[in-house]
Amino acid sequence: MPDKIFIEENKFFKIDCNKAMEIVELHDSYNKFSLLSDVDLIILTDSNVIFMEYKNSTIPNANNPRAFEEKIFKDEEHIKYAKKYYESLVYVSNKIGNSNKSREYYFVVECAKADTVVRKMLAGKIKRKLPFSLQENLKDLSQNLIDHFEVLNMEEWNNKFPDYKFEVCATES
What we know:
With 173 residues, this protein is α/β, with parallel strands linked by helices. It is built from 6 helices and 8 strands; from the N terminus they run βββαββααβααβαβ. Helix 3 (75-96) packs across helix 4 (116-127). The mean pLDDT is 91.
């Protein structure tokens, strides 16, 4: 059985997902074969589908961290993160069908300006663009489009998901 390891794009952090039923990374397929955008990682467990988007401007050699810190306050960015969820949901809905699995979306952000207050503000702004109100209005849905959304830092993610902790990738010597 192959290892279920998520390695973020900068190859600085990884998440061991071997306790999950399955992990899905749509990036290569979505970029090559569609116009859709995707979250960074989808973790399928017995009871949950965990969507995770990850941004980190604090890693060594981060590309223009100040620009990222300014962007996270802009509405266009909030729309982009919401679209990543919607467009990843297309795949998940087809894969798991009419399932009673909870659909949870987590935006994990590490940047100098993203303290607890800013993360809560971001969560509110992005959450308004996610399908919470839509599913309340569409009473005939067979399942929720989304059950939970939260903006976390890496430490909060690790506390919430001890089976799927961010760890520093081993460096080659």
